[in-house]
Amino acid sequence: MAAAAVLAAVLALSTSYCAVSATAVTAAAKVDRIGSLLGQPPVNFSMYSGYVTVDAAAGRALFYWLVEAAGVPARSAPLVLWLNGGPGCSSVGYGASEEVGAFRINADGRSLSRNPYAWNKVANILFLDSPAGVGYSYSNTTSDLYTCGDNKTAHDSYNFLVNWLKRFPQYKHRDFYIAGESYAGHYVPQLSQLVYRNNKGIKRPILNFKGFMVGNAVIDDYHDYVGTFEYWWTHGLISDKTYEKLQLTCEFDSAEHPSKECNKIYDIAEVEQGNIDAYSIYTPTCKKTSLHRRRQIRGRMPWLPRGYDPCTEKYSTKYYNLPEVQKALHANVTGIPYPWVACSDPVYDYWKDSPRSMLPIYRELIAAGIRIWVFSGDADAVVPLTATRYSIDALSLPTVANWYPWYDDEEVGGWCQVYKGLTLVTVRGAGHEVPLHRPRQGLKLFEHFLRDEPMPKPVDSVQTLTPSPPLLHSAALLQSVPPTDPLRAPMAAAAALAAVLALSCCAASATAATAAAEADRIGSLPGQPPVNFSMYSGYVTVDAAAGRALFYWLIEAAGVPPESAPLVLWLNGGPGCSSVGYGASEELGAFRINADGGTLSLNTYPWNKVANMLFLDSPAGVGYSYSNTTTDLYTAGDNKTAHDSYTFLVNWLERFPQYKYRDFYITGESYAGHYVPQLSQVVYRNNKGVEKPILNFKGFMVGNAVIDDYHDYIGTFEYLWTHGLISDETYEKLRLACEFDVSEHPSKACEKILEVAAAEQGNIDTYSIYTPTCKKTSLHKHRLIRGRMPWLPRGYDPCTADYSTKYYNLPEVQKALHANVTGIPYAWVGCSDPIYEYWKDSPRSMLPIYRELIAAGKRIWVFSGDADSVVPLTGTRYSIDALFLPTITNWYPWYDDEEVGGWCQVYKGLTLVTIRGAGHEVPLHRPRQGLKLFEHFLRDEPMPKPVDSIQTF
């Protein structure tokens, strides 16, 4: 293309003078200097690339690309060798092009953009394609491609370094490090061992080797397999049955290879996982090309597909096959008879030696005082964090600094533990390629490695097991906003907007309404956009003598005729948290409250698209619900809440008789894992013997629900460890100290460990462990489920709790909602402290109710966002397993817009659905998938799947 050629010429002129090497250059090195690459922006550093012969007789040469330092003086900056794995994958194609290199290849496959977090900001980075046959590296001896292995690769790489230093003598005696990821978990320590041993006895070695760093690294096969299978199950990727069979069938000791039966279970595990990017389980896959099935670590987990948006491999494949790119890189000078590919099949397929463990090398180099860092992106299912932790534990190293959260821009970047001789760092939310998924955090990690400084932490962010400070949840309790607070003051702009919107009434109800119901009709809310459905809100008395009344908000169906659509009650938990504040305002309601706290925007995926939604604040004292009897606030409990909610429904139907006999469902989340089945049981029992009950109860659905304390606790502790949130020591102590059977409460010893666990997690949103926290106000410390996990803080961006607190305290909002008609002497809050603190009865298990309603044929669905650590998926799976229900449909991935939305298993009497990447509030974190889940629940249809996505044993 003429325009591209002109641009390339211009760039070549600019870069040739822009990047003058800051180091002395030999004649051979000058030949390797890169003038400018196709589509390259101007830079202020030098680059070199070309071939170094490692075996002249065989004609074997390895290709390198040196990117000199830009942010620090190149002449004094350390030299760092980067290796990718496979075996058979290109460090140029991955490390240099989509991870730590100076550029990113654009989607056109012909131009480059700068990587703002390139590692050459702090070091001279040397990328090497090894062994021969990988990338541009070649051999004139064909058999070399079929005789590769760990040993040969290490020695060829060492010969490369020695010969390369003759071409670049300025790097002799320079501080030298080796880094890499994946199967380079073999390459890096093996080459490090070779350099270390060859340096022995030399006073001033030319390779001034200081240490190595590996990420998501294959370290020890036995521990890698054990940890990988555990990761898959605790992250909801495979079924109970497959996990059990993997554990029973696959005995991965140091002498045995996987059996045929084990390989068969692998195949099933792959099918169950579905079309996810196993290297980054929460990111979308690349749909543009079949190249997304590439392998970066293939010798260990060959059954796992690889796909990552933005399809960077497709771009690199196109770019590195362009003749002008190869010419600029001094590559393919011998006319290799095959195109450039990111990973070489022959090298991988015919790989020879591959030792089962790198731990002996670790022990040797640790004893020698060599710096060793291991890092792990915790969203990688191929070489996962659990495997790395098991491998490092096998070294039995003394701890220097206990597990702690490290910070980047006030956010938890991951976790760190310093051992004697080794530092382990996790990177939160990153996949297999940490610098691709978390580039800024990856650069920070690299900087600290070079300085040999532990990752940064606030002074108060770490606790040891002794002594232990007070329980964290006390600091997280919401403080009531006093009546004089500015939050209660009118907002003139919002009021003016509300007045304008009020001129056009929301919508005429499509259902007959009583006079009492008409009094509850909402004309328009302040800051509300126009809508085509009716809304009602107000109070229903549940105990006239006590003056106890519950507040509701009905949002009638919009996407389907409201007169025939089902009626669905939604309940939030706490206990003590508002269904109006959470369910209606930041999850599945018709609106979202904007950041100004005075206006609303439409929710794109509201559940009233398919049903009439009824939100209820229960018990009295929650949200706008109230009692004239003060003691009611201090005597709330499960039983009273269920019966008050039932009384509400019966009385509410007198006001809205058009909903009598309508299909009726109860839904909710969190501690409503108690409310929902308990109310369902009350409705079911009261309906017994009634030929045509006014509450035509069909079933219930609960999400991230407290179901059974014993299993919830066990599952939570396992989740915390397998997701890298707590230390080995704390996990072990939790299991030993906390015996959560059905008759015992946590001991003081257990509570003490729980405090340590909270400190180790740091300032993350435990309800959504990969999302940022709200930094605007202390209100982000609210609790949605507090009775079970009171030590865990709550915070979620975009600070929706703050916005609802402001909005629902506006007098004009309360007037429009017909709320606070009695002048409640306290401000509206998302969660009530008195209700929570004085909660009375709370049965340890809901399983008996499940059994009763399953036997009665009621529809029961349980869903779980798999990024919630408060009531996590592991706890839910253990609880459901305790029901011993027969399986109708085995675990399978369900799909939404060609992406895995989560996983589903249909039991006899119960359906379990997970939502990939969602936190505690599924409709907030994955709104479209949440609505799809709701639609399928109402139709009682299992979640959608491709025909070929299921495989049975």
Q: Could you characterize what this model shows?
A:
Its EC number is 3.4.16.-. One of its GO terms (biological process) is proteolysis. Belongs to the peptidase S10 family. This protein has 953 residues and is of the alpha/beta class. It folds into two domains: 2-222 and 312-451, 3-Layer(aba) Sandwich (Rossmann fold); 486-708 and 800-949, Alpha/Beta hydrolase fold, catalytic domain (Rossmann fold). The strands form four sheets. Strands 1, 2, 3, 6, 7, 8, 9, 10, 11, 12 and 13 form an eleven-stranded mixed β-sheet that branches. Helix 21 packs parallel to helix 28. The protein starts with a helix and ends in a 14-residue tail after the last helix. The model is unreliable at 1-22, 289-310, 460-510, 777-798 and 948-953 (pLDDT under 50).
Q: Gist?
A:
By secondary structure, this protein is of the alpha/beta class. Helices cover 33% and strands 17% of the residues.
